[in-house]
DNA sequence: CTTCTATATGAACAAATGTTCATATAACGT
DNA sequence: ACGTTATATGAACATTTGTTCATATAGAAG
């Protein structure tokens, strides 16, 4: 029986966000219409506006939610004294967290320019928070004399860029297991910052 | 004096491509209209169709041209015996080439999903050619016993991802000179693949 | 000067866009 | 059983979209 008007649906909201996530990741924010999102949910376009004030908010909500998830998941990791161990922990966390959410990650990197200036600033602040986390580890390592990086800011961005790259090619069930991928990347990161 | 109809303009073609390049990089392919491109050139939208059959061709032309430039510039570099030297050459080339063309690079990475399947395949083939170049260097180094990389394919993608990251933050006239940037990245790449 | 051709205009097209709103109705509280 | 309310419809809106085409004209060729 088709969903008819008036029927309650406490799950329509999440379904809209899921549909938007999938479609934005697949075709890009600007290329996806509200009608496509509605169609994916099985509803008319007008109904979307019971759950979001506009299309822009839909995008912002997705990106902000993703960054919140990232930061709170990361906050669950406890720091130890050893900078090398902290770095290893970071690399493993980053790879696994990002590979589990390819669509969110893709959107968070590709759709920044489609945010309004205020929304962009908000997301950027969260991203910087995350980067500062890694930079802190690198600085600690330098202070402890276990890392040799001439510029911690550049090294931070370089490491993150390298790790993000895994999302462009890794497919579960492929040639390499998640553990192997993690080992390979950790090996490169470790050496890259080594003495 | 405003440009009027009928006036010749053997430079309109290049100007259209430049305008499309700038606008696509700034707002994204899907978010830019033919009228915006025409406006940037100072012409009506209809005139664009004297130079391109459609919007998609405009995008494809930009990306294909960029990849051609990349491959022929790279072909100018001569390989030597020493794999480490070849790698250093590659890193320097990549950073400088990409920093000189931020808009083209941005488009080449962000707008892949807006290509038709055939156009996408063509661009991907060119990209793989470039990646194979680096992978060949890494394999040589492994064979020579000067590199330790467990998986040359992954290492190739990791190195390129790391180097591409520089485009997201480097601004000429900023804190670091181009030479410094090159040195820092070369240092990290060298160590990452070292024994 | 005349003819020809390349190039630009500007109006027109159907289709698609984000968003609004009056209307309808299914489920919940009483 | 009944009224209330949250939720969905579907039509409507003003714009904007990519693209086409008849028309006009400036400059090159003769």
TrEMBL record, chains A, B:
Q: Which UniProt keywords apply?
A: DNA-binding, Transcription, Transcription regulation
Work out whether the entry's keyword set contains Metal-binding.
no
Q: Which Gene3D superfamilies match?
A: Tetracycline Repressor, domain 2 (1.10.357.10)
| Domain of life, source organism | Bacteria
Domain HTH tetR-type per the UniProt entry, residue ranges: 10-70
Q: Does the keyword DNA-binding apply?
A: yes
Q: Which PROSITE patterns match?
A: HTH_TETR_2
InterPro entries, from UniProt? Homeodomain-like_sf, HTH-type_TetR-like_transc_reg, HTH_TetR, KstR2_TetR_C, Tet_transcr_reg_TetR-rel_C_sf
Please give the DNA-binding region boundaries: 33-52
Q: What is this protein called?
A: TetR/AcrR family transcriptional regulator
